[in-house]
Design goal:
The protein has helices at 101-104, 132-144, 173-177, 180-186, 197-206, 221-224, 226-237, 259-268, 291-306, 324-328; strands at residues 2-12, 16-20, 269-280. With 329 residues, it is of the alpha+beta class.
């Protein structure tokens, strides 16, 4: 199941490439128009050196973090429409009837072993410099953060123990939406794939200039964290997921332009392109993806490419799979 949106890019004469986002399909808390996120520079939807998670405008890189260490907000996802949470299924106890021999057995003195916490990964991750007082607080949060199964050699996920003391530099919609009460309510919430409120906030905390400031790590995030995401979607896209349904109309005959607008368009626009971005349902989004998730997504895509009709067949090269000669060809 594929979900995503379209990005329209225009090349203007004398102005280089100017991108105008027209995200018209669903899903992306990596919200288009943002930079950062290893899903994407900010929520494709995506997955830097300053230590903030990149989104998730998403995903070109399946890495959950950008070079500066922030989960990408932009990538192959769009917050214009919010998909329903993934139904992972729940295990139900038998209702009525005789108790099984197992349930009737006397309790054992043995304690059930708890799952082991993720081992700490040696990391080159570095925090950005934002504000002297804030930087001290942030360093304390990093030092106290437990290991995360998604941590890598160059990226760390932080766990915020309290609402960040945002500075005047923090401009994101996440910062405007996140109240002490909302943070307290959701700080211990975790999706079935292990994505937390802190994971989602990290891009906006470590990268103050971002406009969205929150990344979704999987489909379930859109439901569990909708009290954060929905106001951000409305603020960014002027679309209310609670009351509106997303509608797409790509009929070019309905585009109305004045004679003056047509003249300007013909004078400056040299070419246009349309990029379709999609997410594969059931897999983590770039900001919350592990290495295994990314390899699994690659496997699904390789299989899909192999099923293309003959006229669309080509050669698939994984990242880093091209020789220098092939890159220059």
């Amino acid at each position: 199941k594929l979900q995503g949106g379209f990005t329209f890019a225009f090349t203007f004469a004398g102005l280089g490439n100017v991108t105008a986002d027209a995200i018209v399909q669903q899903q992306e808390m990596t919200v288009s128009g943002e930079e950062n996120v290893p899903a994407a520079e900010q929520v494709s939807a995506a997955q830097g050196a300053d230590g903030a998670p990149a989104a998730q405008e998403p995903p070109t890189d399946t890495r959950a973090a950008a070079a500066d260490g922030a989960p990408k907000e932009g990538s192959n996802q769009d917050t214009t429409a919010v998909p329903a949470a993934v139904d992972e299924g729940t295990k139900e106890e038998p209702a009525g009837g005789e108790a099984s021999a197992e349930s009737a057995a006397p309790p054992s003195d043995e304690k059930t072993a708890e799952p082991e916490a993720p081992a700490r990964v040696e990391s080159s991750f570095r925090l950005p410099e934002i504000d002297a007082e804030f930087d001290v607080w942030l360093k304390g949060q990093l030092d106290a953060s437990p290991a995360d199964a998604k941590d890598t050699e160059d990226f760390r996920y932080l766990t915020f123990s309290e609402l960040p003391p945002f500075t005047d530099l923090h401009k994101s919609l996440m910062r405007k939406t996140m109240t002490p009460e909302l943070f307290a309510k959701l700080k211990d919430v975790k999706t079935s794939k292990g994505y937390t409120l802190s994971n989602g906030m990290q891009a906006g905390v470590l990268r103050p200039h971002l406009g969205v400031g929150f990344t979704a790590g999987d489909e379930e995030s859109f439901e569990l964290f909708k009290e954060v995401i929905y106001p951000i979607v409305e603020g960014w896209h002027k679309f209310n997921p609670e009351t509106q349904e997303h509608k797409s109309d790509l009929d070019p005959s309905k585009v109305v332009m004045s004679d003056e607008q047509v003249a300007l368009f013909q004078k400056y626009v040299k070419s246009t392109r349309v990029r379709a971005a999609r997410n594969i349902s059931g897999y983590a989004l770039p900001a919350g993806a592990s290495k295994e998730d990314r390899l699994a997504v690659e496997g699904v895509l390789k299989e899909a490419f192999g099923g293309l009709p003959a006229e669309l067949q080509g050669t698939y090269y994984p990242l880093g799979g091209l020789t220098s000669e092939q890159e220059d060809a």
